[in-house]
Amino acid sequence: MTDTVNHPPHYTAGGVECIDALEAATVGLTGIEAVCTANAIKYLWRWKRKGGIEDLRKARWYIERLIARGAPPAPPPPPPGRPPSKPIDC
Questions:
Q1: pTM, to two decimals
Q2: Which domain range does residue 57 map to?
Q3: How many domains, the chain?
């Protein structure tokens, strides 16, 4: 029998629990940034298995809120085949 309270199928697909992914994804974030990031991921995670297009709209709402608050963008990844650059000491 499926445990729909502790392990609902729309949060356990792929062998990874959504809550574990959210915990990892929000390390270093605090307050509303952590909340909005986690909620956006949650709705993207489950959209095909539970809420459909409405879940995608909810995810977008949280992403737009992060953008409106001016969340700093992540640094770009290094070009393929090159190690990350290191600061030069002067």
A1: 0.69
A2: 29-72
A3: 1
